[in-house]
Each structure stands twice: as C-alpha cells, then as structure tokens.
Design a protein that fits this description.
Structural class: alpha/beta
CATH topology: Rossmann fold
Distance between the termini: 39 Å
Mean pLDDT: 98
InterPro entries: NAD(P)-bd_dom_sf (IPR036291), SDR_fam (IPR002347)
EC number: 1.1.1.378
Bound molecules: NADPH dihydro-nicotinamide-adenine-dinucleotide phosphate, the ligand C[C@H](O)[C@@H]1OC(=O)[C@H](O)[C@@H]1O
Largest sheet: 7 strands, parallel
Catalytic activity: L-rhamnofuranose + NADP(+) = L-rhamnono-1,4-lactone + NADPH + H(+); L-rhamnofuranose + NAD(+) = L-rhamnono-1,4-lactone + NADH + H(+)
Shape: globular
Enzyme class: oxidoreductase
CATH superfamily: NAD(P)-binding Rossmann-like Domain
Number of helices: 7
Number of strands: 7
GO molecular function, one term: quinone binding
C-alpha cells in the first residue's frame, strides 16, 4: 500500500543520511520529491537518481537553509516543477561537536542558524504555500532525542533540537485551523555523516550501542517509515506529537 500517492514532498538536507532515506522512502510511497542540500552536489544527484528509479519524479535545489531566502526559493521551485507542496520534511542540520567552555561564537551562531532558523523559515514558507492551496498538508521536523537529554559536547546543538520540537508544538496550534499537521521525529543515534568522526571512537560507539535496548545503532532507513507515516493520511488525527525513533535508548536508565 502506497501512502503518499499523488503528493509532492519536500525534504531539506537530503543529499545524505536521514533526509536522503526519507526522500527515497517518500518516493517509494508514490510521491514526487524535491530535495534541498547545501554542498554535496554528487550525493544530491544520486538521491534524485534513486527517487527516479522508483518511477517518481525528483528535483534537487541547492541552498543554505540558514538564509531565509533559501526557503522561499525552495518552495517556489517545487511549485514550478510539481504544482504544489503537500509535505515538508524539515531535516537539514549540523552538529560540530565541541567542548562548552571554549566554544567559538561562530560555531554556536552557525549551529543555531542552520538547525533552528533554517527549520523555522522552511516550515513557514511551506505552511504559507499550503494555506494558499487550501487543502491542508503535513509538516514533519527532524528533532532529536537530544531535545530531551543533554550532551557534553553538544551544548550548542541540543537547544536547537529542543527548539525544533517546540516549533512543531506551536505550529501545530497555529496551523491546525488550516488542516496542516505538524509533528516531529526524535531520532536516537543514527549512523550518518554527522557523527562519523564522533563514533570513530570505538569505546564511545560501544557505549552508545549498549545503551540501546534493541542492541544496535540506527540506520537512516529506520527513520523513513516513521516520517512517511506522519506525512501520510494514516496520521490524519496526529498533530503536535513527537515520536522517539531511538531503539529504546531514551528510556534506558539502568
Ligand atoms: N545522525 C543522528 O544520530 C541524528 C541526527 N539527527 C538530525 O538529523 C538531521 C539529518 O542529519 P543526518 O542525516 O544525521 O546527517 P548528515 O550529515 O548525513 O545529513 C545532513 C544533511 O543536511 C544538509 N545540510 C547541512 N547543512 C545544511 C545547510 N546549511 N543547508 C542545507 N542543507 C544542509 C547536508 O547537505 P550537504 O552535505 O549538501 O551540506 C545533508 O544533506 C539533522 O537535523 C540532525 O540533527 C537527529 C538525531 C540523531
Ligand atoms: C550527532 C549525534 O551523534 C546524534 O545527533 C543527535 O541528535 C543525537 O545526539 C545523536 O547522538
């Protein structure tokens, strides 16, 4: 059963990792997919090729989500290409691990701008287009387990993920009257480019695995199903919700 037949799905940060898996998962469920990315041209082209291999249409639009104009351009190009915006998956993000006491100002500001401002303006641009279309829509933001728990080397990052989680709660209220649902997924530790260096520390990787009741770290594809579900009409009465996708890591105190 295809859950997104006839829909146009936009995914930010989809050249690699979770965004890429969500984009391909949406195409496998019958959507045409427009992806955003900032740097990785070849990876973005490969993602579009994978989307098209499903028989759906794909388009990559390059742009830095930290710039509010990128959101306007992304939505406009999606409408030009495929006629509407039915789903926005706000996923683009960075996590440059760094200690707190000597955290450079530029690292804090860049992380806030990409992860939180970027999500804010993407969600706002998509919502305005959905309101104009008058047939509702679905917004799924990729927050994190880190919205709920801290990280010694993530003091600049975890507040952005809590912010994204909170943004979905507030926009669920602001947009409910337009039939637009807003939810977040909260991934645990998923093996992607964002933590390749961090998890090259074998002891740390083992510790993270041992904290996970399902016994393994996540793969990007583990997020595709939950994101497609929240994007789809199967979740028609779900808004303002946050879904942990973490193999049980969050509940594992002892
Ligand atoms: N991996 C994990 O354990 C977890 C990840 N997350 C969240 O998942 C999301 C995706 O990360 P993940 O897949 O892990 O990591 P990746 O590094 O694999 O993917 C990040 C994606 O974001 C894009 N991106 C980065 N900066 C920008 C920017 N300024 N503008 C537009 N696109 C940008 C990258 O594109 P390009 O390379 O072209 O710049 C890439 O497509 C992030 O929001 C992250 O916080 C949440 C919880 C856990
Ligand atoms: C980048 C981290 O490994 C990853 O990102 C998060 O949001 C979680 O903290 C994960 O551990």
């Amino acid at each position: 059963m295809k859950l997104l037949e006839g829909k146009t799905v936009l995914v930010t940060g989809a050249s690699t990792g979770i965004g890429r898996a969500a984009a391909i998962g949406a195409a496998q469920h019958g959507a045409n997919v427009v992806i955003n990315y900032a740097h990785s041209d070849a990876a973005a082209a490969d993602c579009v090729a994978q989307i098209e291999a499903t028989g759906q249409r794909g388009l990559a639009v390059k742009g830095d989500v930290a710039d509010p104009q990128t959101a306007q351009d992304f939505v406009a190009k999606a409408v030009d290409a495929f006629g509407s915006v039915d789903v926005m998956v706000s996923n683009a993000g960075i996590c440059p691990f760094h200690a707190f006491l000597d955290m450079p100002v530029e690292v804090v500001e860049r992380t806030f701008r990409v992860n939180l401002h970027g999500a804010y303006f993407m969600v706002q641009a998509a919502a305005n287009q959905m309101v104009k279309q008058g047939k509702g829509g679905s917004i799924v933001a990729v927050s994190s387990i880190s919205a709920l728990v801290g990280g010694e080397f993530q003091t600049h990052y975890t507040p952005t993920k809590a912010g994204v989680h909170s943004l979905m709660q507030s926009t669920a209220i602001a947009l409910g009257r337009h039939g637009i649902r807003c939810n977040s997924v909260l991934p645990g530790t998923i093996l992607t480019e964002i933590n390749k260096d961090d998890l090259a520390d074998i002891e740390k990787r083992k510790y993270m695995e041992q904290r996970t009741p399902l016994g393994r770290l996540g793969m990007p594809e583990d997020l595709a199903g939950p994101i497609v579900f929240l994007a789809s009409d199967m979740a028609a009465y779900v808004t303002g919700a946050a879904l942990l996708v973490d193999g049980g890591m969050f509940v594992n105190l002892q």
